[in-house]
Amino acid sequence: MTRVTKTRSAARPDNLAEAVYARIKADIFEFRLLPGARFSENEIAARSRVSRTPVREALMRLAREGYLQVYAKSGWSVSPLDFEQFDHLYDLRIVLELVAVQKLCAGKPALALGSLRTTWLVGPRKRLGDGAKVARLDEEFHATLVAAAGNPELTRVHQGITERIRILRRLDFTHPERIIYTYQEHAAILRAVLLRDEKRAASLLRAHIEASKAEVRTISLHRLHLAHLDARAAGKAKRI
Question: What is the pTM of this model?
Fold first, then answer.
């Protein structure tokens, strides 16, 4: 009975749609689907071996989140990277996190940020080197700072921004030196907040986010260039 229930559950349309959604989103984040690339629902359905119903549900969700664009008669395309919009989102992120730091420094940050000590206030030998894991920890660091400020609306808006810039932000951890800098900068920010030194914490936080914004723009342009070269080479190989 249990096996039958699990099998039916795994085949439910909502589960299929979630799987297709995750796969397409990963393809966009890894530049396997390039900005501007066009495709049809039938292509995705055939590749995913599912019907068009869960595919359309997944695509519509990605479109609502801004990752895809839909055209009435010509299918779907990956949204182009809008660096101006990303700059605006990073600017808003800075504002929100500075407000959080201000609130934390005015209270008792040691009680709210204890979990961050064990992750970031560590020596070089205890630091992680896996970029994907550090990217997740980086998001948790900034999310924890904001959540600890105790304003649920601040947290909600910050979560939305985090989701929208993730496609670029995670690229900041593809270079080993950026992982080292992240550990150093997070540790410095955390120490300043724990000492309730608002001015220093705010200055360090702003510099940290600005540096990350500049770095991910450079990496994104480079990754896009390489991805386009690979796509051209694959196209030539097929014609031969």
Answer: 0.74
